[in-house]
Amino acid sequence: MNPRDPRINGQRLKSTIEELARIGGTPGGGMHRLSLSDADKKARDLFVQWLREIDLEISIDEMGNIFGEKPGEKADLPMVLSGSHLDTQPFGGRFDGILGVTGALEALRVLRESRIETRRTVAIVNWTDEEGTRFPPAMLGSGVWAGRFDRDWAYSRPDVQGKKFGEELERIGYRGQAPARKRPVHAYFEYHIEQGPVLEKIGKRIGVPKGILGITWYDVWVEGKANQAGPTPMDARNDALVAAAEMVLKVNELPAKMGGNMVTTVGEIYNAPNSRNIIPDRVRFTVDIRSWDDSLKKRAAEGCPARMEVIWDIPHTVFDLNLVQRVEKTARQLGYSDHSMVSGAGHDAAYVNQVAPTAMIFVPSMGGRSHVEVENTAWEDCEAGANVLLHCLLESANE
Ligand SMILES: [Zn+2]
Fold first, then answer.
1. Global pTM?
2. Cα–Cα distance between 125 and 329 in angstroms, integer?
3. pLDDT tens digits, residue range 333-355?
4. Pairing, β 185-193 against β 358-363
5. How far is the CA of 301 from the centre of ligand 1 (A)?
6. What spacing in Å lies between the alpha carbon of 113 and ligand 1's midpoint?
């Protein structure tokens, strides 16, 4: 690649990420910016201001997804799109999602200051509620946009306090006018931290995922009989928490038992009445099952005796081969080492991939840690991945 070809301003990318990290930042150096919270509103306001500063055409849809477009010479051709999400996990990290939004923003800033025009429109997006922590399921914004979820169903989703997605979207002023409906997209690139240990371990800079594991989320309810902890003999109990504990161990044993590429997690548990001297009578816990093999994922849940509800189910994603090869080729042209892999984490790219050619770009996560406050990625790696994104966008936008 010609050394005079445009490059990302790594310093500016760093300060953009640091500025966003102050909105909902935690004392432990992480982020607590749940979807549609006051902090989310503040981050959105700043993001919209940045889009305005580079003269993008801004639109906000009914799901609060924010788009900024730099019109191409042939505005009627399907656009090239890139972005990710600005919401975070509770006590999550500074890079998850944010790197993909700020990387795309930086690419658009470079196009503008270098006066680079493209044949197709290049657009950036911030998807709403990617994490799904506050309003499950995950990827609600891109899911509605891609036609996988109904808009009004999404509006009705409650958080743990019973507040509805639609009301909270309205409250923070981001229920937009544009229909939350897919538009023709020529190519979608999502830039993201790996969130796993592989790239760091093998010493490679750019991860090139060929797809994303399928994910199923369950809620499991276990019922017992509440009673006084003292007078009730051990053989006369119906303890819901003990039953749930046995199930949690079974969930953990599933991957080893079933073989194949699968991971299972119980991450959330509610115990009632949650009192030290009452035998628990109601427990709800979550199960997260992921596999490249969708049938394995389905079989894992068969034969469970408790009441169980599927909260979310998305089959495994196979990205567009041409775009995946473009990411790999661009990384090599820029002189970065690369590695072909699969994403264990879910991304908006999974839904966009159902309606448009899609690929992702990964950079290493230090210590393989993510969804935690210590989540970190070297600034040089942030810059490298953004350069790959910039040149993938340019090539696709001139097709
Ligand atoms: Zn993410």
1. 0.91
2. 24
3. 999 999 999 999 999 999 999 99
4. parallel
5. 26
6. 28
